[in-house]
Write a structure and sequence with these properties.
mainly alpha, 5 helices
């Protein structure tokens, strides 16, 4: 059995790399001759959006209810993470729309700056939560969590 906590850590590490790559791609296009190039970001944004939505679904439908029951003292942290999910998903959806309509890169950069700040804070909160779970959960709890997130 794969450790479900470590699997979530791995998922988030991949998403972190993709967020950094997206930022680099946006900044690379933000130059004088970059006008009309926003559409080039649509594929990258679409892929990131799909990964993030799936990862967040696994958390909200599996991890968060599990944590609320198994480790109730972490409920406030989980609630804050769920709120951040909404802002992160909204930012991704907006950037995808802007890129797919070939909007001005300056507008995408503005949305990305807010997204990046929110995502960075969320990633730190999630890393701390997963670290705490890694220390606290026994084999039976890990097996139960694995069952909860398996089909998502």
């Amino acid at each position: 059995m794969t450790d479900p906590v470590q699997e979530l850590v791995h998922d988030h590490a991949d998403i972190n790399r993709r967020v950094l790559a997206l930022g680099a791609a946006i900044r690379a296009l933000d130059r004088n001759d970059g006008h009309g190039m926003a559409v080039a970001l649509a594929g990258q944004l679409d892929e990131l959006r799909d990964l993030v939505f799936l990862h967040f679904a696994r958390e909200e439908e599996g991890l968060f209810p599990f944590v609320a029951e198994a480790v109730p003292e972490l409920a406030d942290q989980v609630h804050a993470m769920a709120l951040a999910h909404d802002a992160i998903c909204g930012g991704l959806a907006r950037m995808y729309h802007l890129a797919s309509t070939n909007a001005e890169l300056a507008v995408i950069l503005t949305v990305f700056a807010r997204f990046e700040t929110t995502y960075g804070s969320h990633a730190e909160t999630e890393a701390e939560l997963l670290h705490q779970l890694s220390r606290r959960l026994g084999p039976a709890q890990r097996a139960r969590l694995a069952d909860l997130v398996r089909g998502l």
